Every structure is written in C-alpha cells, then in structure tokens.
C-alpha cells in the first residue's frame, strides 16, 4: 500500500485525508495548527456536508509539523500531497523532500499554479498536479470540516490529476484511482488548461468574497457583484489564452464565451444565465464561502497574489489590460491590512 502524507491539513487536506483513511489507506496528516492536530488526535476529523447523512467522524493519523523529523524512522513517503495555502508551498515541499521514497513524488492539491515552485525543490520528474474542482470545504473549528458542494455525480469530476507533460502514466492513474475513493476523479492530459480554468474560476469568486464578505450564493444573486465577477473571469481567460493554454470549462462556462463576455452582450448573457442557474440548481450550499473569504473571517493571510494578483501580473507582462483583477487585488490587500472592512459596496460602486 502506498504511504501518503498530506502536508497542510486544512479544509482540503483534512477532508481528503479522512475519507482516504476511511477507505483503509495509509494516511498521515501533517499540520502546524496545534489545536487542530490535538483535536484530530482526540476525536478524529468531524466531517459534515449539505445534509445530515454527510456527517461522520473519522479517526485519522495526525502529526504536528514539529514532529516531522519522526518521519525519518518510518516508512518512506510514496506520495506527498501538498494542500497548504500557496504561500506555504516551498517550505512544505522542502520539509517533506528528505522523507520521500526513491520513486516518491509530490502532488500539488491546491488552487493557483504551484507546480513550478514544487519542481524547483524536488524536480519536474517528481512533481504532479491535481485540481480539486468544486469541493467547497471549510475548516470552521479545530478538527471540524464542512463541505458545501454535493459530492460529484456522473456529470462532474471533482479531482483532475495530471502529469506536467500531459501523458497518462501509471502513477497518475493510480492516484486518480485513490482519489476516486473520496469523490469523482480522472486523469487529465491537459493539466495546464485545467489549472488556468480553475484559476479563472477562483479569480471570479475568491477575491470578491474577501472584499465583500459575501457567501458564494449571495455573490451570484447580486446583479452588480455578478457583473464584476464576469469581468474578472473574462480578463483571466483572455490572459490564459494569450499564454497559449487550451482552457477547460470554467465551472460550467465555456472559456471562449467567457473571454468575450466583457465586450459581447450575447456572451455576457450566456455566462450570466449559467451563474444564475447554478444558484437556482443549488450547486453549492448556502453556507459556502470561497476560501479567500474564509481567510478574511479568520484574520489569516490570503492567496490573492496567487489568484487575481497573478492574473494581473501575467496580463501586464503580455500587454493585456486587467483592470478588474488589479482592482480586486488592491482591495483585498486593503482588507488584509485593515484599512477597509469587507463590504459589498466596494464592488457595487465599481460595477
Ligand atoms: N477550501 C476549499 O474549498 C478549496 C481550497 N482549495 C485550495 O486548497 C489549498 C488549501 O486550502 P484550504 O484547505 O481551504 O486551507 P485552510 O485555510 O483550511 O487551511 C490552511 C492552513 O491554515 C491553517 N488554519 C486554517 N484555519 C485556521 C485557524 N482557524 N486557525 C489557525 N490556523 C488555521 C492550518 O494550518 P497552518 O497553521 O499550518 O497554516 C491549515 O493547514 C489552497 O491552495 C486553496 O486555495 C482548493 C479547492 C477548494
Ligand atoms: C470552492 C472554490 C471553487 C470557490 O471559489 C474554491 O476553490 C475555493 O474556495 O478556493
């Protein structure tokens, strides 16, 4: 059996680690947050979801980051899943590197585009990417994770695992098989197109949640805020396409339509209809809050420079204007510094 260590047991890491453990996999969670690790050791990971039936408590092997050196006395790590925030990627990879098996590898199970950061430490050959599309989890108390997206059905694949070069290898096939114990999973031959599509999705929702303090369904329910998210998405897709990526769908939205939505009224309407429909169809629960919004509530650093900030940086490099992504990045920075408080008006006034 493969030994899997999850470095960064936040909402995503704890959720996946608990469900893999439930399916008898060899999982170790590794995290800095003392109370969280202690709560898991005492009581297990408490999962809840959109219905009562989703509630369960699973005992999981958890280690404090300060105990990581103990790994030297244990079975080498076959798969290290990095599920930290993007700004913690380098040290997390550096920390786990000495404990990897000879053929061990590191998987970025994060948002944003962190594979190059990981490859800089363990090499491209030991780097794998995995997108988690529509999992919507929140670590709202030590050891307690709530999910606000239904589990994937036949029409939606949650985990998309891919090699950097796009070929289907035994190790990514095996990883997708493992993740399918948690939810729907597949191997993608288009990791970069998936990554940029998810980045565009996050560019639409995460910064806006942080600046407004709004939850996912409220964002889609407000015409002015919704307009702003569509502009963000259009810019993000334009930049991704200019970089040469063949973007996959952004949520349910065709990227070519989204790219035109800032100038073409028909394209705009098509995107808006989909966003409104997602809300009606309840593709996310009412408690769902994009992770950057969760960070603000918790008074923690956000990944904004890796989401909207990154889109704006790449746009600048290519000579593509990204005023909406620039603006939301600046606003989130101000919220983080406490010079403004989260409020929908920051966005509504511009939109
Ligand atoms: N949440 C989601 O639905 C999704 C998230 N992602 C991505 O996955 C990656 C991990 O995100 P996510 O799991 O949401 O991150 P979390 O914010 O849940 O956890 C990240 C880390 O923050 C610390 N932490 C979290 N909450 C607290 C708290 N209240 N007090 C003290 N420390 C806390 C923990 O340890 P430490 O102290 O070591 O920082 C934890 O490992 C990111 O790249 C994110 O964008 C991708 C898809 C969906
Ligand atoms: C759930 C989703 C897609 C919301 O933007 C996400 O990835 C996040 O919260 O970071």
From TrEMBL:
Keyword NADP: yes
EC number: 1.1.1.169
Reactions listed under catalytic activity: (R)-pantoate + NADP(+) = 2-dehydropantoate + NADPH + H(+)
Record flagged with keyword NADP: yes
UniProt superkingdom: Bacteria
Short name of one Pfam family: ApbA_C
Annotated ranges, domain Ketopantoate reductase N-terminal: 4-149
Ketopantoate reductase C-terminal domain residues: 190-336
Protein family according to the UniProt entry: Belongs to the ketopantoate reductase family.
Protein name: 2-dehydropantoate 2-reductase
Organism name: Pigmentiphaga soli
